[in-house]
Structure formats: C-alpha cells, structure tokens
C-alpha cells in the first residue's frame, strides 16, 4: 500500500491561522458596498415604521402568535405557503444560474458567512493592525499588549454577534418594545435562547471558524463545483503568461521590465505572494482552480495593484473561463451565456418570478373553504324533501372589516337556508364559520349533482369567488 | 504480519509489572468521551434536583421545580413537577380561555347566541367536541342516529319537540319512549291490518282492504292506537308519540326494505313487539348547565326548530 497524504499528516490537522492583508481595488469596493447594503437592510429594517390598523407599526414583522407575516402593505398567512416554496425554488435556480455563468459569486460576495467574516476581519484589522502586525502579535507571548488587543477584538466580536442575534429576534416582535423587554428580563424564554444560540454561532462561525465553515461545513460550496462548465467565468491565474518557459521570478535587477523578463523566458508573475496574503481562505490561486476558492476576487485586486506598480498589463489573475485559457489564442474574457443549461435556468427563473409576482398581485382579499357535512351526507325530511348541509369558513385577509354575502347558483334561491347569517361581517385577519342548509324536493334533488356557492364581499362584486359543491340524495351513487 | 505490527507499535503501559514481565497496555478513553460522561453526571444531578427522581417508600422524591396554573375559578394551584400536573395545567389553560364564552352562554338567551357570529362559531366548535364526547356514542358523530335504536337529530321531526326549550328539557331530564307489545291483545290478522293502515298514511304500497280494516281498528277501543298517536295519526309531542304520517322512520326500518311487503313487515314487527328501548339518559348531573346549554344550541343547529 502506498503512503497517502493522510498517513503523512495524520487524519487531524491543526488549523493554520490566516492573517489576511487588506487590499484596495474593484472587487474590494464591490464587496464593501454589498456588505454595507446588506447590513443596512438587515440591521435597520426591523426599525422601519409602517402604520397599521390592527398590528404593531413595524414594516416587516413575522407575527408567529398571530400566524401571519406582515411585509409592508402585504399580510401573508399560512395558506400562502406556496409563495415561500416558490421563493425557495427561485433562490435555488438563481444559484444554479449564477454559478453556471460566473462561478461561486454567491460565496464570494453575498453569503452571510463571507459578509460576517469580512466584518470581523475588519474589526481585527482596526484593533490589531495590518497583517505583519497581526502575525507578530500572534507569535509574541501573552503580555499586556496582546491581552488587551486580542481581548478587545474578541469583545467587539461578541458585541457584533449579540447585536446580530438581537436583530434577528426583532423581526418577530415589535422591536422597540422587545429591546426594552429583553434588557429588563421581561422577554419570552424563546427570545433569550434564540439570541444566545445566534450570538454564539455568529461568534464561532465568523470569528473562530471562518474559512473552515466554507471548506468543511457548507454543502453549497461543494455542490456549486458541479455546476461549473468549461465556459464558466471563474477567478483564474493565467499560468501561461505568469510562468512562461522558465517560471515565475522576483523582480530583481536585470529582470524588472517585461522586455528583460521575456528575453530570459521568465513569466510576468513577480512572485510577490500578495495574492496568497489577501486570500481569506488561505490558498494560492496560482495552483489553479481549487475547491476552497470562494471566488471573492481579492487576489485579482492584489495582483492588479502589483502589475500597475511594475507597469505590467493588468489581468494576470482575472475572471476567465477554462476553455478560453486553454485555447491557443485566448480572446478577451467575456460572459458566455449561449448554453442550453444557462438559458434553461434563465427561462425557469423568469417564469417562476413572473408567476410569483402574478400570484401576489392578484391574490383575493379573502379565503374560503366550503365543506359538505358528510355525517350524514343527506337528511330525508318529514315531507320527503332532501336536505344537505355545508360548512363555510371565510377568512378575511383584507386590512379592514368586511361583510360577505353568500348566495347559491344552480338551485332555486329559496332552497338555500343560511340560518341567522345571510350576511356576515368579519374582522381583518379573522375567520368565521357559517352553516348553510339546502332543501330540495326529492324530484329536484335526484336531478341535482352539483351547484355553486358564491361568496361576495359586499360592495366588491369583482372579488366574488365561487365553489362548486356536491348535492347528495338517496339512491345516488358517488 | 500482526506480530510485526505489535513490535513496531509504541503503546504506553500502565507502569505496573506482574510476575516479572507482565505489563498492561494503557489505552485511555478518548478525551471527548470522558468529558461527555462527566457532563451526563452533572446533568443527572441537576435533573434529580429539579424533577421527580428517586422512589422513597410508597412515594418519591418530588424535586424542587413546580408547576403553577390558574384554574377557571381564578384560583392559583401549585404542584410539584410531574406530567399529570403538566396535563392539568394545559387543561386549565384551555378552561380559562373558554370561560368567558361559557359565561356568555349562561347569560345570553338562545336566539341571541345563535345570531351572534362569534358565539355561533364557539357553539360549532365547543358543541362539536361536547357532542362527540357525550352524545355521538348513540346519535353518531353527525347526529344522524341509527334507525331502530337512536333518533336522527338532523331531520325536522322531533318526538318531544325541537324548540330550544324542549331540547333543553330532553337533555336535562332524559326521555323514555314506550309502546306496548300489541301481540298480547291483537291477533296476527289485526296487526297486519294495522300495519297496512300505517303504511297507507305514508303512501307506501299496501293492501287497501286491510288498510281500511286497520283504520277502523286504529280508532277502536280494542287497539286504541289513537290514544297516543291521535286520531289523525300525527302523534303527541308531550308524550313522545311519533307522527305516523310523515316520511321519517325511527323504529321500523322502512327505508331499508326494498319491497312494499318488506316495508309493511317492518311496521308489523314494531306493532307486535312494542318498544321499551327508547331511553335517553338525563344529563343534568353529568354536565354543567353551561355545557348543556351549548349542546342545546348545537343540537338545535343540527335540525331543530320544529
């Protein structure tokens, strides 16, 4: 048996700490703006007011005890779970679509693990300084400076984690009140448990585990690799340009300009190692595309900075496709979408998004469920007439109280008996039960298979909805 | 191979040596396992303190955690933690929520309850579960009854009257339906004539000659059917004598018989054998007045009014 890597290293390898160097550039700017935007939305949204008649004035509120989600002007009830299903489908297809086009863009720019890790590294950088300072601090013994700096970093991480957890629960109750309750010990146990778990998991994931979450824990990162195609744009090192015939070499005297280097057969890579130092997952992109790469683009920024300083052309590390890099005459990298898979995902995305939009825009203001009472299916009355009974549940989903009128079609008007409730007024978000009886003479009853029960909101006949119901009589077989 | 492997391994020993050279390998348990074990020991100690744990004579050590709940009377009750107390707390929580509704039921007249949408919803749900627990064993889940045994509550024929007051009276005091067995006073011929007459009242196929004779017998002092069923055979609700002229059958299973002869035979059986099984128990001692009132409105909703 050959000795494998596992035997050499042991099954368990201690994590090698990563100290990322900060970098400036196009991708860093994009990442920062996504971070600021995402944080602004996540942390501020629960505080956005929105006036409502029957609910707390909070724009986004997941009202679990009330069994409804309040999203600005929209109230979502459990019956609308199909929207959630659609949303999840759309999210999944969007991930497939984007990954096929530009690789793990989600991982690199939008994933909350990346965002929070980025923010935590920013805190670390502000307190402990740039990469060399942090490496030095890591190696020095536990003196006063180290205790203060490292302790301060962890304390700030904890604080950021706590506020992350708190913000999460603000979405589930009226935020200003919940904040007061939380710190005066009045909030529900679930609030403390949720905040505790989220604080701890944020601190551990973004502060301590970082790239290990992406490498060992996250399934998405792994299965996105399967969606790569030869045409997919990904962060690549142009090895042909960088290594040339005699490999990379530092820019010493005599090999500083491109002309000198090309003459010696040296590549354009000056082996400064900056691309490795800025990498949040601690890989060397020059080893080729690898599963740990979250495609954040920071090595592109780093390399471009160096290329600029040497006045070499940019793009030694760049977004490009495997196919283009392998071709004898590489063209300028461009987005290649004319593939069956990409177009298919695109069409599916458009269709589902359109349907979701249509469904939300045209949903009725009330829900109805009409059930025939099945025990007994029919009753023979003393004069031989047949009676069927129905239970009608109406849920008012509109923002104000509404009166509903129930009528029948396909049977004589006098046959429908609604007891005491020919009209019923229902408060917003509430539902009501109405028992309806239908009496038909035996001769008519055996002719009647179905009829229509119509529920009309008073004054809004456009919104009326009908339900076809069965009518049962003796001698009829289902 | 295995010998080679053993020799090459450097495993720690416990340090003791017996009989000169007998040594014991030291293979400690994994650290995570040991700490998990300690954690379970601490968990057990906390658990014993909080919850019922050790048997003690005929009882047990209760534990320091308590369950406190408020019952529908507004009293606060505290038990040491156990699953039965947990159930009681749950039941009382429901009772406290229902109390305002039951109080309203007690205070409101029947018609008002039936017209209030909120109360009507409560009657439909609370009445349904009360009915399922107490009434459905005989009258079936939907109140449709069983022909030959238990009356149908969903039709418009009421032996003792279908008003709120009458249904309430039936529920409170129960009922006992009785009809003597006429085989003791009448011969088979006469019973057959009566059966044909009763069939004719509901337009069921019958022998006209026998029915005419049965008509005479019905109104005679020999059979004296009209005492209870009245001379036009429409029955008497004060004593629960059924109306014989309508399409509703409780005791004779007429709807099940396919032929006219079969239907007449079913009626004949009831006249000959009489009835002594129409017993409805009284509920006044078993259910609270509010529960009986809820059931009254619920049953009235099923098919009452007449």
Automatic annotation (TrEMBL), chain A:
<dbReference type="InterPro" id="IPR032879">
    <property type="entry name" value="FixG_C"/>
</dbReference>
<dbReference type="InterPro" id="IPR051684">
    <property type="entry name" value="Electron_Trans/Redox"/>
</dbReference>
<keyword id="KW-0813">Transport</keyword>
<keyword id="KW-1133">Transmembrane helix</keyword>
<feature type="transmembrane region" description="Helical">
    <location>
        <begin position="186"/>
        <end position="206"/>
    </location>
</feature>
<dbReference type="InterPro" id="IPR009051">
    <property type="entry name" value="Helical_ferredxn"/>
</dbReference>
<feature type="transmembrane region" description="Helical">
    <location>
        <begin position="30"/>
        <end position="48"/>
    </location>
</feature>
<feature type="domain" description="4Fe-4S ferredoxin-type">
    <location>
        <begin position="292"/>
        <end position="315"/>
    </location>
</feature>
<dbReference type="GO" id="GO:0051539">
    <property type="term" value="F:4 iron, 4 sulfur cluster binding"/>
</dbReference>
<feature type="transmembrane region" description="Helical">
    <location>
        <begin position="343"/>
        <end position="361"/>
    </location>
</feature>
<dbReference type="InterPro" id="IPR013783">
    <property type="entry name" value="Ig-like_fold"/>
</dbReference>
<feature type="transmembrane region" description="Helical">
    <location>
        <begin position="154"/>
        <end position="174"/>
    </location>
</feature>
<keyword id="KW-0249">Electron transport</keyword>
<feature type="transmembrane region" description="Helical">
    <location>
        <begin position="81"/>
        <end position="102"/>
    </location>
</feature>
<keyword id="KW-0408">Iron</keyword>
<dbReference type="Pfam" id="PF12801">
    <property type="entry name" value="Fer4_5"/>
</dbReference>
<keyword id="KW-0812">Transmembrane</keyword>
<keyword id="KW-0411">Iron-sulfur</keyword>
<dbReference type="InterPro" id="IPR017896">
    <property type="entry name" value="4Fe4S_Fe-S-bd"/>
</dbReference>
<dbReference type="GO" id="GO:0005886">
    <property type="term" value="C:plasma membrane"/>
</dbReference>
<dbReference type="GO" id="GO:0046872">
    <property type="term" value="F:metal ion binding"/>
</dbReference>
<dbReference type="InterPro" id="IPR017900">
    <property type="entry name" value="4Fe4S_Fe_S_CS"/>
</dbReference>
UniProtKB/TrEMBL annotation, chain B:
<keyword id="KW-0679">Respiratory chain</keyword>
<keyword id="KW-0408">Iron</keyword>
<keyword id="KW-0479">Metal-binding</keyword>
<feature type="binding site" description="covalent">
    <location>
        <position position="135"/>
    </location>
    <ligand>
        <name>heme c 1</name>
    </ligand>
</feature>
<dbReference type="GO" id="GO:0006119">
    <property type="term" value="P:oxidative phosphorylation"/>
</dbReference>
<dbReference type="InterPro" id="IPR050597">
    <property type="entry name" value="Cytochrome_c_Oxidase_Subunit"/>
</dbReference>
<feature type="transmembrane region" description="Helical">
    <location>
        <begin position="32"/>
        <end position="50"/>
    </location>
</feature>
<feature type="binding site" description="axial binding residue">
    <location>
        <position position="280"/>
    </location>
    <ligand>
        <name>heme c 1</name>
    </ligand>
</feature>
<keyword id="KW-1133">Transmembrane helix</keyword>
<keyword id="KW-0249">Electron transport</keyword>
<feature type="binding site" description="covalent">
    <location>
        <position position="225"/>
    </location>
    <ligand>
        <name>heme c 2</name>
    </ligand>
</feature>
<comment type="similarity">
    <text>Belongs to the CcoP / FixP family.</text>
</comment>
<comment type="subunit">
    <text>Component of the cbb3-type cytochrome c oxidase.</text>
</comment>
<keyword id="KW-0812">Transmembrane</keyword>
<keyword id="KW-0375">Hydrogen ion transport</keyword>
<feature type="domain" description="Cytochrome c">
    <location>
        <begin position="209"/>
        <end position="303"/>
    </location>
</feature>
<dbReference type="GO" id="GO:0009055">
    <property type="term" value="F:electron transfer activity"/>
</dbReference>
<comment type="pathway">
    <text>Energy metabolism; oxidative phosphorylation.</text>
</comment>
<keyword id="KW-0560">Oxidoreductase</keyword>
<dbReference type="InterPro" id="IPR038414">
    <property type="entry name" value="CcoP_N_sf"/>
</dbReference>
<feature type="binding site" description="axial binding residue">
    <location>
        <position position="139"/>
    </location>
    <ligand>
        <name>heme c 1</name>
    </ligand>
</feature>
<keyword id="KW-0472">Membrane</keyword>
